[in-house]
Amino acid sequence: MKVVHWNMRYYPLLGGIETHVDTLIRHMPDIQFEIVTDALPGTARTERYRPNATILRFPPVDRSRVSRHRKLSVPIAAIRDSLREARERKYLRSAEYDLLHVHDFDKNLLLMEDRTRLRFVGRLAGRLHNLQDFPRPRLLTKHFMFTEENAVPALRKWEERLVKQFETVVCVDKAIERRYSALEGPKRVLFIPNPIDTQQFSFAPLPEDETIHLGYVGRLAMARGENLLVDLSHSLPSGTDLRMAVPHPGDRLADVKKALGGTRVQMELDVPYDSMPKFLQGIHILVNPIADAYSTTRVTLESMAVGRPVIMFNTGERYPMRHGGNGFLVNPDVQSICRLVESVKSDRESLERISKKAREDVEKEFAAPLIASKIRRLYGELTGSA
Questions:
Q1: Do 2-195+367-383 and 212-365 come out as alike in CATH topology?
Q2: Topology of domain 212-365, CATH
Q3: Helix (H), strand (E), coil (C) string for 277-310
Q4: How far is CA 87 from its chain centroid?
Q5: Which tens digits make up the pLDDT trace of 90-116?
Q6: Alpha carbon distance 8, 35 (integer Å)
Q7: CA 375 to chain centroid
Q8: Contact between 220 and 67 (Cβ < 8 Å)
Q9: CA dist., res. 321 & res. 281, Å (int)
Q10: What's the mean per-residue pLDDT of the chain?
């Protein structure tokens, strides 16, 4: 069987969709995969990525994926994306494969339509994202969803049109599953979470340091809680510090360091993905202050896998987290985080119990072999080779 992953955002592993795809590939060694994606600076157009996987990169080159490169303006990015996607579509219509597995699309064309009010831009996006003329079986995995809080109406309508083109849709979060289960179109909407490599992200005892090490992993952005992290850095309870693993923020680096300040904040830039388990094993608790109300995110599950409880906000769906069971859910403010940390400092036994439960829950439901077997069964059903 040959499966094509169509993902415009595949670049060296930093987490997110590309890690999801890579984990599936590694746990299905008998299936041949192609990744159809965007060209990057200094990369070959064709790359043997794994023994069972090849990457095909299509120009124009996407320089915005380089961590220190300034983001392109929306109009330039939209033109770049449309040229690339047209080439990818041409290839996919004639290529030989058994199933097309789609992992969302970039949204620059839709943003351009909203900002310019040019209807032809929206029509172009509709044509590029129209899969009705693709004759082979196809599967969509939804890794995120647009909401009233994080997107304009045009993006939400476009997303619904995309979802309706698939008979089978996989959702990595329960809230995404609930939304699209109620949408007319797909015959089958399934919750199959992100696969977590529990061997790579192996359990380790909590550090025995007297200092409680809080951790943060992710981009520095408003939606990721940057302002709260700044406030937290200036309000850290005694006997705690904050360790951060973040992509390089480019020309904002000096301002970010100044805003965070203090001697109890350590920042590591562009930590390689294969070094992330060691980073997580060096902390006691991960702080994941994302603003959206529907997701848990991969880093939460990876942190739980190594036995590091996570603090998230109690403002929406955070499955599989349970407050005081395998993690912590608090109000979305620094004071609530600090009160929780103070209580943890004086109750290390409870922290150890929660640490072990976090690992146990990830092993039971999110371990990569379990998730890969579910996706494999879907591949077989959709291609008639079950």
A1: yes
A2: Rossmann fold (3.40.50)
A3: HHHHHCCCEEECCCCCCCCCCHHHHHHHHCCCCE
A4: 26
A5: 999 889 999 999 997 666 656 665 665
A6: 9
A7: 18
A8: no
A9: 19
A10: 88
The backbone torsions φ and ψ at residue 38, rounded to the nearest 5 degrees and listed phi first, read -90, 150
**111 versus 60: which is more confidently predicted?**
60
8 A C-beta contact, residue 188 and residue 168: yes
Confidence at residue 67, expressed as pLDDT on a 0 to 100 scale: 46
Number of alpha carbons in the 13 Å side-chain half-sphere of residue 272: 2
Q: How many whole angstroms separate alpha carbon 268 and alpha carbon 8?
A: 27
What is the β-pairing status of strands 310-313 and 285-287?
A: parallel
Assign 249 to helix, strand or coil: coil
Report the candidate in 174, 11, 383, 30 with the shortest Cα–Cα distance to residue 22: 11
CA angle 320, 329, 194 (to 5 degrees): 30
Asked whether the beta carbons of 103 and 33 are under 8 A apart, the reply is: no
Instruction: Tell me: cis bond preceding 193? Omega within 30 of 0 counts.
Output: no
| Residues 155/160/165/170 CA torsion (nearest 10 deg) | 100
CA distance readout (Å), 32 to 11, 99, 103, 301, 386: 19, 11, 17, 27, 16
Name 119's Cβ contacts closer than 8 Å, sequence gap at least 6.
113
Question: What separation in angstroms does the CA of 238 have from each of 94, 114, 185, 300, 338?
Answer: 63, 48, 54, 25, 10
With beta carbons less than 8 A apart as the criterion, state whether 139 and 377 touch: no
Confidence category of residue 74, pLDDT binned at 50, 70, 90: low
Instruction: Kindly calculate the radius of gyration of the chain based on its CA atoms and give it in whole angstroms.
Output: 21
**Predicted TM-score (pTM) of this structure:** 0.89
Residues near 342 by beta carbon (within 8 Å), at least 6 away in sequence:
237
How many whole angstroms separate alpha carbon 251 and alpha carbon 220? 13
Domain segments of the chain as ranges: 2-195+367-383, 212-365
Q: 2-195+367-383 in CATH: which number?
A: 3.40.50.2000
CB 10 within 8 A of CB 35: yes
Label residue 228 by pLDDT band (50, 70, 90). very high
**Are residues 334 and 228 in contact, defined by beta-carbon separation less than 8 angstroms?**
yes
